[in-house]
Amino acid sequence: MKKILFVLHKATTNPGPVAELLSQRGYHIEKRTPREGDPLPLTMDDYEAAISFGGAMSANDYEKNPFIRAELDWISTTVLSSNKPFLGICLGAQLLARALGATVAKHPQGEVEIGYHVLTPTLAGNQYFNSACYFYHWNSEGFEIPSGAVRLASGDIFENQAFRYGKNAYGVQFHPEMVQSTLERWQQTETQVKLPKGQSWSEQIQDHIKYATFVENWLNDFFSCWLDDNK
């Protein structure tokens, strides 16, 4: 059985099309939430790949949140040494960057990314992003590109939006797993006061309807590159 490990930072995280597309490819998904006490595997032998999802905490919170420290150490040792495909989404990307020695920090002018924002591929990123395209963001922090990594896409607010380290490890600042039901739930439970200057809820939902199909198609193409090319 082909298994992919999902590392969640909140048990209620909806993996959306990430889970759906991988299931369609025949992968069994195993979810672990270290914040809730789930241990991370000691090896990657039982898994074809791993994905670390987003969360409200910071990659810099390793002193007050032991599960952040544990995941940083796990990425540095278990994941990267295995040479198995790894994808970090939002916080997951920031954890990957931090584990590789790069800085994760708030925007110097205090700006945030909330809603759909355009990404521009770099020359190295043209094989992953064939044009400027829109993805969903909910970020108050960004990452530097780690030493030895390659930037794949840039943005107007946080310059670094995607990178590759080695052959198999990727980090993306955006949320390709976003679904409308999650946005609607956040509309009921979150406020723009916590992260000002973001798009309104109506703009976010309208843009999601506009861009969701493109994002899902992009994700499917990315999985072909990320997984199929590493068999």
Short description:
InterPro entries: ChyE-like, Class_I_gatase-like, GATASE. By secondary structure, this protein is of the alpha/beta class.
Run of helices and strands: EHEEHEHEEEEEEEHH
Q: How many structural domains does the protein architecture include?
A: 1
Beta-strand percent range: 15-25%
Corresponding CATH superfamily: Class I glutamine amidotransferase (GATase) domain
Q: What's the CATH first level?
A: Alpha Beta
The residue-averaged pLDDT reads 93
Strand order of the largest sheet: 2-1-3-4-11-10-9-6-7
Uncertain stretches? none
Instruction: Tell me the Rg in angstroms.
Output: 16 Å
- Class from helix and strand fractions: alpha/beta
Helix content: 25-40%
Q: Could you explain the architecture of this structure?
A:
- Residues 76-182 form the Glutamine amidotransferase domain.
- β3 (49-52), α2 and β4 form a beta-alpha-beta unit.
- The mean pLDDT is 93.
- This protein is an alpha/beta fold.
- Helix content is 31%, strand content 25%.
- It has helices at 16-24, 66-82, 91-99, 180-189, 201-226, and strands at residues 3-7, 28-32, 49-52, 86-89, 104-106, 113-121, 133-139, 141-143, 149-155, 160-165, 169-172.
- The chain is built from five helices and eleven strands.
- α1 runs parallel beside α5 (201-226).
- It has one domain: Rossmann fold (3-Layer(aba) Sandwich).
- The strands form two sheets. It has a nine-stranded mixed sheet with strand order 2-1-3-4-11-10-9-6-7.
